[in-house]
Every structure is written in structure tokens, then in C-alpha cells.
Fold:
Amino acid sequence: MRSYTPTVIRRSDPARVEIEWSDGAVSVYTPAELRGLCPCAQCVDEISGRRTNDPASVPSDLRQSDLHMIGNYAISMRFSDGHHTGIYTFPYLRENAPEKRDPAGGSPSSEAGRAAPDSGGRASPGAGRPAQG
Structure:
């Protein structure tokens, strides 16, 4: 069975979002990756399901802020390009995790890529409060 339950969501800085999953896996996303994956109606045609934003056009130096929980099933955030309407469900994030998309095996969630816990940049899913960061 696939695990889509995060145990920790960490925004250690504006250029990184890290999710620790209940099965021990860790996914590390850049804001550009998340913006390129945005599932909102502005970025994905609601009728055809076709992506209308080009992930390649997202600036690599994009930043994120205001990371917060949406109920017990998703996160949302504001990007430095002004975009803020994406709701990223946990299954969607897990299925599109960078380590699953990196065929070279250089997973950003490998042990070498893990960040040490930061001071206060953690959110407890289900707590219903915004992530700190």
C-alpha cells in the first residue's frame, strides 16, 4: 500500500520544502518544481486536463512563502511570481516527488540531500495550523 501521509513538512528556507512521509521516505522540492507541478485551474485546463503553464518557463530562482495546511489533505503556498492558487494534495505530491522523476538516481531526497532539522520550520499535518518558516 502506498503511503501518502506526511509526518513532517518543513520549509527550512524560501528555496526548499521537505516532506517526511510515514513510510520513512523524504521528498525535497524546490519552489520551481512545485510551481511547475501546480494543479490549479489556471495551470491545468479543467476540461482537457492539459497543462497550460510550461514548467520549463518557471524561473529557477523562484521562492515560496506562506506555506500552510489545507485541512488534513494538502498544502498551499504563495510563490514569488505572485501565483498562489495551487492546492497540492499529499497523494499528488508523493506521486510527483522529485526522487520519482529523477531517472539518473541523483535523488534530492537521498541521505546526503537531507537537511538537518531547522528551528521551527516544521508543520504537523493534521494540526490545522500554518507551517512555520
Observations:
- The helical segments are 31-36, 90-95, 98-101.
